[in-house]
Amino acid sequence: MNKNSSNIMALAPNTSNKRETVCIFGTGDFGRALGHKMIQSGYPVVFGSRSTQISSLIPKGAEVLSHAEAAQKAAIIIIAIQRQHYNFLTSLTEILHGKVLVDVSNNLKINEHPESNAEYLAQLVPGAKVVKAFNTVSAWALQSGTLDASRQVFVCGDDMEAKQMVMNIVRALGLTPLDQGSLLAAQEIENYPLQLFPMWKFPILLSFGLASFFFFYCLIRNVIYPYVYENKDFSFFIAISIPNRICPILALILLALVYLPGVLAAIIQLYRGTKYHRFPDWLDKWMLCRKQLGLVALAFASLHVLYTLVIPIRYFVRWRMSSHIISQVLNNKTEPLDTTNAWLSDSYLALGILGFFLFVLLGITSLPSVSNNVNWREFRFVQSKLGYLTLILCTAHTLAYGGKRFLSPSSYRWYLPNAYMLSLIIPCMVLVVKFVLIFPCLDKPLTRIRQGWERNPQYSEQSHYIINKSAV
Question: Which of 49, 402, 435, 441 has its CA 20 to 30 A from that of 145?
Answer without folding.
Answer: 49
